[in-house]
Input
Amino acid sequence: MLNNLKQDEAGRMMALHRLDILDTQVEQPFEKIVELVQQVINVPMCAVSLIDADRQWFKACRGLDVCETARDVSFCTHAIQSIDPFIVRDATLDPRFANNPLVTDEPHIRSYAGIPLLTPEGYVVGTLCAIDRVAREFPDHEIAILSNFAKVIVSELELRQIASTDSLTGALTRRAWMERARIELNRAWRHDRPLSILMIDIDRFKTINDTLGHPVGDLVIKRFAELFMKTLRNSDALGRYGGEEFCALLPETSLENAGLLAERLRVLCFQEEISELNGLHVSVSVGLTSRQNGTNDVLAMIEEADRALYHAKKSGRNCCQSYEDLSRELSSSVA
Ligand code: GH3
Ligand code: MG
Ligand code: MG
Output
């Protein structure tokens, strides 16, 4: 096997996060694989494990009743140090694992075979592992089967990533962004943390297409997306919500800070020089909203940001509007 393993942890974490797989819902291809492994290798436990900064998270598993464990006790942490299969025939005889709580206590792991999930870039993001409660060998033909399944998993992860990326801009597709927003909103809700979203729509975009042509329109969409991605933080997520409409997910961001960011993006867009526009400056309008106490519904937040965006358009475009200011104005004008 080609030894192109990259071992820097920061790069490995970025490769893992690019896959956008952590905390996502159950998906069929991975379910089928763990089921097949369980049957073919005849093991009580099997998992597709992704190694995050301080935990291992199971995209799919059988025979284990948790969806994650701490990284420091996990066998898979050892398995990702190399591109070769990592095999423990009897954990009670291995000084690295004899006192491990996963060995001495539930689920009483006794033997383990983990195949590294090696991405084409050369990072091991996790393992496919087969686990037994008795000491056992994992003969070559079983390791070969596991290795083939591990390759299928990596292909599935790549396909998933391609399907979740908008080809023109590199932003997330609407579906992938919604999935990420759902995960982040749940997290914000659980830990009572702030979270905001922006909806950004390019102003009078039809005119650009009509006067300068569709390819120039495409170029504007692409350049603005680049500008957004450059300006957002790593932990934020940009989605292409529709044709010339973007959505930005801002975890750990208050409404006030989201407002500052929205304004910065608005100004950057308007200042952007695109030679194909022959001196024309293109603007955007932004609607934004923040997680209210108890809000746990992505669609409700999008609806709020959309209403604010609609209002920004009505107010003359090239401006930002928050849903919170809007509803305050509306309720004071009713009173
Ligand atoms: P407003 O300020 O109200 O947003 O005006 P607008 O012209 O931007 O309004 P609208 O949202 O109705 O028009 C968006 C246009 O974007 C319509 C569609 O033809 C064009 N469009 C959608 N997707 C693409 C794309 O991928 N490339 C290009 N060039 N144009 C697109
Ligand atoms: Mg528009
Ligand atoms: Mg639009």
User: Anything to note?
Assistant: The CA atoms of residues 120 and 154 lie 9 Å apart.
